[in-house]
Amino acid sequence: MRRVLVLFMKELKTGLRDSMIVYILIAPFILALILKAISASVSATTINIAVDGTVSEETSAILSEYAEVTRYGSKDEAIRRIGDSDDVFGLTMEGDRYTIISQGDEMERSAELLEGIINHISNLDTPKAIGVSVTDIGWKLSPLSQYGGSLLAIFVSVFGGMVILIGLVQEKQEKTITALNVSPIGKVELAAGKAALGFLFPLAQVVGVIALMGYEGIDYPMVMAVTVSIAFISVIVGFVIGANNDNVIGAIAGMKILFVPILASVFGAILLKESLQFLLYWSPFYWAFKAMNKIVLNEATWPMIASYSGIILAITCAVFILLRKKIQHGLV
């Protein structure tokens, strides 16, 4: 165990000196922030209004039935907020008249809708100009947030294999893999020390990505269980490609082969009807995506996660049996 820990610390120290590995570590968090920003902008359809102190609390309360209202201490503060790049209207009182302030690049017809609300407030004895109702069509999250976050989590689980293959290729280039083979470290200890990064990095990244996406009520132990199960596949592929390549760029290009079944599995799970999804049962990424999707929707149970993870691990064992000799040959 001590030798495995020493080898793991060596791999960690060496990996953090490589700019490509540092990029692999940071990139998922940047992508998660971008995805969250895009999801928020797609989901935001409410009119946003900045009001100053001249607008009464009663008027603000009525406006809140139709729009998102934010109060500012002065007209200048409201105008500064209106000047930002998003769609925000301003409302102030000048004498006994309401004045709408706009930047000019707001969504089409939003100003007309706001005018209708103001006319209603100014003439409360007349029928409402608009009505508001909410209909639930079954979406708990926006499709972009739901599917995008789950897809990103599956991709991140594969990055651990990239870290392993980069380390293996570098050791082959520096001829240190030969020295390790004649050292007191056994092959199992060598594999365990190198594989540890392939599990540690995806665990930290997936948990961080899910947290950045801002999902509510996430069961993180379930997230970690699915991440570990799918990381086995990437670790095996990372060993195979890294042990049989002498060039980092070529090895990473080989690792990208995994992106094809990932995308096929995810889009198949989304677009294929249930009766045809048996065509994807061979793919561990299909089961991982289904598990992550249930987790972000707060519909997952431990028996469900255990069954999905068990299927993933069974497929992983089959893959390992097929590729074991290639790994052993490449590490000699």
Automatic annotation (TrEMBL):
Keywords: Membrane, Transmembrane, Transmembrane helix. It is found in: Membrane. The keyword Zinc-finger does not apply. It holds the Pfam family ABC2_membrane_3. Residues 19-323 form the ABC-2 type transporter transmembrane domain. The keyword DNA repair does not apply. The chain crosses the membrane at residues 20-38, 147-169, 190-214, 220-241, 248-272, 302-323. Its main location: membrane. It is a multi-pass membrane protein. InterPro entries: ABC2_TM (IPR013525). This is ABC-2 type transport system permease protein.
